[in-house]
Amino acid sequence: MKICIKNLNKKYGKKHVLDNINLELENGMHGLLGPNGAGKTTLMRILTTLLTKTSGEITYNGINVDNKKAVRKIIGYLPQEFSLYPNMSVYETLEYFYLLSDIKPTKAKVLSSLRKVHLDSCKKLKIKALSGGMKRRLGIAIALINNPEVLIVDEPTAGLDPEERIRFRNLLSDLSKDKVIILSTHIVEDIALTCSSLTVIKEGNIKYNGKVSDFIRIGKGKVFKLPVSIDKLNEIKDRYVIVSTVLDEDMAYLKIISDTKPEGAETVNPTLEDSYMILMQEVDVNVIEIG
Ligand SMILES: Nc1ncnc2c1ncn2[C@@H]1O[C@H](COP(=O)(O)OP(=O)(O)OP(=O)(O)O)[C@@H](O)[C@H]1O
């Protein structure tokens, strides 16, 4: 599968929300990252045919996005919010969505769908008894009913506990072998651990598109560990972008971003988050107190 996006624009009235987006996406896990209001959901909703573009062209192996009926057959979408009937069981819910998709829900098909998302042992549970992670895995099973070649997931791990996040990430990685998966998230770690390529959007413009490994190199030679005494902290805050602060007695152990190496600092390998911070030039101080 190859998705080609050419000169895509979306305006709400005079507001230019997507500004001449050009992208090519192939099979594998593709991350979509950007601050609130960057245009990620708008882009995903246009890709799923739920929203019409203002101008530009999108094709899926040559099939134009304007051909909604054909495109909907090849796309599965897990939106940020979705509702299910609380008193239906997991099995009944999936059966119901099979019917909505005009596919006969044989027992073998429904059970195979549940197995894919590791919910076969919970088939009798009512929706209201599911955890957030189980509900989202069921959402994936629903999105996969048509065996889509493209799967688009919006913030799937927000609010999940670490165990469910890991399980969900592994599920997406397994599915990405023969699909294009577009994963939009604010959780940079999810992208670092699952995606091979990445698009960063800010204010409707693409700031980066390419391999995750190349993106991380943006931060090479610009990220440092710097121990300072707590009384010098304010002075340092004015001079550098601080990505994390660990306080221990009268010392602060900082991770900072700087174009040049400050005195007393140690150069460290950048993470995806550090490189993202450099690209965005936004400060998000993370204070962990010890003792
Ligand atoms: N229906 C609408 N009418 C007018 N403006 C809209 C509409 N939907 C979204 N916007 C605006 O478009 C911009 C992009 O919104 P979008 O939801 O695509 O961003 P996002 O990157 O998904 O943000 P978030 O990470 O917060 O979900 C925002 O400025 C938003 O206010």
TrEMBL record:
- Its transmembrane ranges are none
GO molecular function annotation? ATP binding; ATP hydrolysis activity
Show where the ABC transporter domain sits: 3-228
Query: Which Gene3D superfamilies does the record associate with it?
Result: P-loop containing nucleotide triphosphate hydrolases
* SUPFAM superfamilies membership: P-loop containing nucleoside triphosphate hydrolases
Instruction: Please provide the record's keywords in A-Z order.
Output: ATP-binding, Nucleotide-binding, Transport
Q: Which CDD domains match?
A: ABC_drug_resistance_like (cd03264)
Cross-referenced SMART domains: AAA
User: What InterPro entries does the database record attribute to this sequence?
Assistant: AAA+_ATPase (IPR003593), ABC_transporter-like_ATP-bd (IPR003439), ABC_transporter-like_CS (IPR017871), P-loop_NTPase (IPR027417)
Q: Which PROSITE patterns match?
A: ABC_TRANSPORTER_1, ABC_TRANSPORTER_2
Record bears the keyword Signal: no
What does the similarity note say?
Belongs to the ABC transporter superfamily.
Provide the protein name: ABC transporter ATP-binding protein
Please tell me the species this chain comes from.
Vallitalea longa
